[in-house]
Every structure is written in C-alpha cells, then in structure tokens.
Amino acid sequence: MRTCIGCRLRAPATDLLRFVAVGAGDVFRLQPDPKRRLPGRGAHLHLDPACFAQAERRRAFGRALRLTGVADTGLLAEHIRTVMPRGTTDDKASAPSSRPSKVGRPQ
Ligand SMILES: [Zn+2]
C-alpha cells in the first residue's frame, strides 16, 4: 500500500503513479515512472488531475521527495492529462435494457 500525496488516501501501489525527482542543484524535474524502474526516492499520486492539484497546492511534491529546491511539475502534469483515469464511463448503471414492459402482456 502507498499513500497518494494529493488526497492522502492509501491505495495499492499499482493504482498509483510513481514519480521521481530528476536533477541536481536547485531545480528538479518530476519524472513520471509508470513502470516503476527509475532509481531514487519516489512518491505516489493517483492518475487524477484533482490529486495533482491538491498536491501542488499543498507543496506536497517537495516534502514527499525531500527536495530543497524548486520542483518542475510539467512532465508529471502532462502525463496525468494524457492518461485518463479508468472507470469514468459507467455504462452498467445507465443501461435501460431490463425495464419490464406492460405492452402486449396477455390478459
Ligand atoms: Zn489521490
């Protein structure tokens, strides 16, 4: 289990996007790591723009990754924008196929 640094909810690591900080000096770039292969300290976030916004607002990126400088969130924001979260279309709930019909019933 990992904690999303945006909404602070715990979730299986496979449900969260791992990312690491790349760079040296005072400027770091947040690098999405969907395959979980990059070395270094990572943090986790839901693939959800709302979680990203929360993390950014609370400056959670720097804290989670122990950064002292400025974190460039551009790559991470782009990744979250392009990967849509699953389960946004709920077609099971909206299917009207099983509605009983009163028409043509034998008397
Ligand atoms: Zn979250």
What is the strand and helix layout of this fold?
Elements: E1 2-3, E2 10-11, E3 16-24, E4 27-32, E5 42-46, H1 49-57, H2 60-64, E6 70-72, H3 74-82, H4 91-94
Parallel strand pairs: 4-6
Antiparallel strand pairs: 1-2, 3-4, 3-5
This protein binds zinc ion (ZN).
Quickly count the domains: 1
Instruction: Give the name of the CATH superfamily.
Output: YlxR-like
The number of strands is 6
Helix/sheet category: alpha+beta
Q: Tell me the radius of gyration.
A: 21 Å
- Second CATH tier, the architecture: 2-Layer Sandwich
Q: Spans of 5+ residues with little confidence (pLDDT < 50)?
A: 90-95
Terminal Cα separation, in Å? 59 Å
Average residue pLDDT: 85
Oligomer: single chain
Summarize it.
By secondary structure, the protein is α+β, with helices and mostly antiparallel strands. The chain has helices at 49-57, 60-64, 74-82, 91-94, and strands at 2-3, 10-11, 16-24, 27-32, 42-46, 70-72. It contains 4 helices and 6 strands.
Task: Walk me through what this model shows.
The chain is an alpha+beta fold. It has a single domain, classed as YlxR-like (Hypothetical Cytosolic Protein, Chain: A, 2-Layer Sandwich). The chain contains 4 helices and 6 strands. It has helices spanning 49-57, 60-64, 74-82, 91-94; strands at 2-3, 10-11, 16-24, 27-32, 42-46, 70-72. The strands form 2 sheets. The chain has a 4-stranded mixed beta sheet. A hairpin with a 6-residue loop joins strand 1 (2-3) and strand 2 (10-11). The longest helix is centred in the middle third of the chain and has 9 residues, at 49-57. The radius of gyration is 21 Å and the shape is elongated. The termini are far apart. Zinc ion binds at residues 4, 6-7, 9, 46, 48, 51.
